[in-house]
Structure formats: C-alpha cells, structure tokens
Amino acid sequence: MELTLLLIKAAIIFAIFGITLLIATYSTYAERKVAAFIQDRVGPNRAGPFGLAQPLADAVKLFFKEEFVPANANKFLFVAGPSLAMLTACMASAVIPFGNTLIIGDMVIPLQAIEVNIGILYIFGVVALGVYGIMIGGWASNNKFSLLGAIRAASQNISYELAMGMSIIALLLLSGTLSMRGIAEQQGADLFGISGFNWNIFYQPVGFIIFITCAFAETNRVPFDLPECETELIGGYHTEYSSMGMGLYLFAEYVNIFVASAVMSTLYFGGYNFPFMYDLGLPHNVVTILGTVALFGKIFFFIFFFMWVRWTLPRFRYDQLMNLGWKILIPLSILNVILTAGAILLKEEYFR
Amino acid sequence: MNFSERMYLPAIFQGLSITMRHFFKKKATIKYPEETRPMSAVWRGLHVLKRDEQGRERCTACGLCAVACPAEAITMVAGERKRGEEGLYREEKYAVSYEINMLRCIFCGLCEEACPKAAIFLQNDKTAPARYERDEFIYGKDRLVEPMPTSAPN
C-alpha cells in the first residue's frame, strides 16, 4: 500500500515536471505566433505542420552552437548561474494543486505533487531564490553590462517581492490558510447560487492587479524586462552566454511564466473550480478531470495574457519602475491589507 | 493628468484591445514559394526570342534592338543562312550569337518595341532568376531562344 502510494506520487511528480517543460517549450512557439498575429504577420510555419516542430529546431540550434566561456569568467559560477535559474523555476510547481482528488477503489489520490500547509510560503521562497541564478550569471560573466543587468534584476525582484507579499497577505486574511489546496478548495463554495464560483478575484480585485503587476516584474517580462534591455545593456545578465546556457535562461523565464500563471489561477481564479461544477450531477472523478482541464484553460489564458501585454506595452524606464514599485504598489497593497482586515472585522462584529 | 489617466489601467486596456483587434485581422503576408503575388498586366520579365509557326527563328539580326537599348545590354553577331538551313532561320540573315547582359538590362521593353520581326519579347510570367556568378548573367541564345515546340507542324 505504501509502495503504490509512493509510485503514484512519483508518477504525478514526473507528469507535472513533464507538463511544465512541455508547456514552457511550446510557450516559446506560442510567443512567436502571438507576436506575429498581433503584428499582422504569419509567424513560424516552415518546420512541421503550422511550424509545430519549431521548438525542436530551436533546441537543436541552441545545442549545436559553440559553448563559449569568457577568459576571465568564474567558470564554476558561470555554469551554475543558468542551472540555478532553471532549477528554481522547475521547483515551484511542486505545491500547486492541479486538480481535486481522484477516488479509485478506496484510495484517494490528490492531483498534486506535494501537499504542504505552507504552500504559498514555499512558492515565495523558491521564486525568491530564482534571482540568484540571474545574479550569479551576471556576476560570473565578468562584464560590466552583465553585472548592471544582474543588479537591476536583483533590485527589481526585491522591490516587487514586497508588494507581492503584501497583496498575498490580504488574501490570506480572507482564506485563513497558507495551503494552496486549502485556498483552492475554499473557492469551490457557492456565490450568487452558482457552485464553484466563490473565486477570490471578486473579493480581492485590487490585490489581484497588484499581484499580476508584480508577477510581470518577477518573471522579468515586458514591461518590466529591464535586466535584459538590449538598447542599454546589450543583452543584460545573459550577454556573455551562448548555446544552452542562454537557452536555459530563456527557458527558465517561460517556466516561471507557467508557474506564475498557475499561481494566479489558483489564488485568484478558483484553481480547479469552475462554475456549476457540482450542479451537473457528474461523478466525482469526472468533475475532478474537468476541473483539471478548467485549470489548464485558465493557465493558458494567463500565459497568453503575458504575451499579449508583451506585444502591447513599451518598456518602463528604470526610475519609473522603481517609482511604481515603491511609491504606488507597496502603499496600495498596505492599504488593501488594512481595508480587507477592516472589512473582515466589520463582518465578524455586525453580520454574523 | 487627471485621475483616470494616472491610474494607467484604462490606457493599458485600450492598448490591449487595439492589439487584440490586430490578432484577428487578415494577414498581409504572401507565403512566397506556395503563393505568388499576381503580376501587373504591364509587367516586363525575362526576355525570349520567339520562333514562327514553323519553328524557325524570327530574328534576322538587324540590330535595331541593340540600337534601341538605352543600357546597351544587347550584342549580336549576324551570319548568312546556308543552303539547307531554311527550316532553322526565317530570313537569309540570322543571329549567330545573341547576348543580353542581365546585369545591365533595365527591362524597359524598348527592344520589344523596336523589333520589326516580332522576335524579342519580355515575358510577363517569368522573372530573371538569381545567379551566383557575374558571367552567368550574360544570357546567350541557349537561354533566350524559345524551345522548339514538341509537336512541330509539318
């Protein structure tokens, strides 16, 4: 019994890992297609039908390029940088509940790699470590532009981590738990008589806007992609990287986008819950699978949203970025915490 | 800036709606090897030296095309038709060699207008192809003369 449970856990972990990598791979393709469609072009269409083999071609290209290490670079750290970025990016998806439970016989299998009651803290810890990959890579290159890019990345991530944490605290006041599964389960309750529609976005719209802005900054996406701003810093922290080192940095960014989308869907958009989920009269396992499909639909929408914003908004200037982070988002998120706490107190006092 | 402008978000949503509309627009791209752009009716392409209805070369090497050519791209050597070659050349005089330097040609079509024998034409369905060496751009009779019709009339 113990062994079967372990095997099932291992299978789920491998599945999540594989899906993460697959989605990140095809995000690179989707990014190019979305860019092309928004710019009235066609996009990659040569490799395979509709260009679907394009990520494969890109990977082959990156693997066969020369792996170049600058003469005065710190060789160990130069290799460790992209590896660390990739490692931390892949670790974060472990605590995200990708579905409710499957009941086979008398076994209850939650569709989640690890269920811990500090899920959000774990994600924040791992995502915060991700900046080390960029920092180490930029420093080890022994190039002042790379170093500037790395410093920008570090200061930007620290600045936006604060506002992000505050926006999450308002959410935690409502949910009363740090467990990702717990938060997802709460959102399956009724709202306006619709089951599975008690999503946090209706209670925390401001918190969500702060969170998504910070998520853009944390994943180094446009309009906050200052660490790799090619007009000012050549290529930023990955200037000196070639071949798969560069590939890992770019790939880690897409894995981060996937994780950020999954976290946003779980925290604010009901996770695996979808409207009318318990009114359909379907068996539990079918509802679970439909819920997983719904969650991936939400995740794909947010990945698309990341790309949509990228091809719409111009990049911020660095002082504008810092102003937005420290003077607007942090005060706003603190205000949001105070208002949420006040509303909860009022409700407990007068509307019980 | 008023309050809604300082909020940034309305402007961002406006921008997002603009890019979203472009997402569904018809693409201007012509996927070249599969699709080709329709040529204009008056477009002038690669030269051809025509044969008449009996498969004989129309060109008599009169040199009017070379005179008319503003880029001086055409050179030719005239020769006299021998006995027994009546099936090859239409008149007593013919072009032993006929060369057009495609690096000089400006595709103006004046050669076509000058030709009294309706021998040279600029085809409207064929582009001069790209080549790798400069001497490959001097087109001789082997590339210019229309190939013999497969079923030659008796």
Automatic annotation (TrEMBL), chain A:
Family matches, as InterPro entries: NADH_UbQ_OxRdtase_su1/FPO, NADH_UbQ_OxRdtase_su1_CS
Q: Which reaction does it catalyse?
A: a quinone + NADH + 5 H(+)(in) = a quinol + NAD(+) + 4 H(+)(out)
Q: Which GO terms describe its biological process?
A: aerobic respiration
Q: What is its EC number?
A: 7.1.1.-
Query: Transmembrane ranges?
Result: 6-29, 76-99, 119-141, 162-184, 196-217, 248-269, 289-308, 328-346
Keywords (alphabetical) are: Cell membrane, Membrane, NAD, Oxidoreductase, Quinone, Translocase, Transmembrane, Transmembrane helix, Ubiquinone
Return the broad EC class: translocase
CC annotations in GO = plasma membrane
Q: Which GO terms describe its molecular function?
A: NADH dehydrogenase activity; oxidoreductase activity, acting on NAD(P)H, quinone or similar compound as acceptor; quinone binding
Spell out the Pfam families in the cross-references: NADHdh
Membrane topology note: Multi-pass membrane protein
Regarding protein family, the annotation reads:
Belongs to the complex I subunit 1 family.
HAMAP family in the record: NDH1_NuoH
State its role. Answer: NDH-1 shuttles electrons from NADH, via FMN and iron-sulfur (Fe-S) centers, to quinones in the respiratory chain. The immediate electron acceptor for the enzyme in this species is believed to be ubiquinone. Couples the redox reaction to proton translocation (for every two electrons transferred, four hydrogen ions are translocated across the cytoplasmic membrane), and thus conserves the redox energy in a proton gradient. This subunit may bind ubiquinone.
Q: Which NCBIfam families match?
A: PRK06076.1-2
Q: How does it assemble?
A: NDH-1 is composed of 14 different subunits. Subunits NuoA, H, J, K, L, M, N constitute the membrane sector of the complex.
Q: Return the protein name.
A: NADH-quinone oxidoreductase subunit H
Q: Which organism is it from?
A: Nibribacter ruber
Q: What is the lineage of its organism?
A: Bacteria, Pseudomonadati, Bacteroidota, Cytophagia, Cytophagales
Q: Which gene encodes it?
A: nuoH
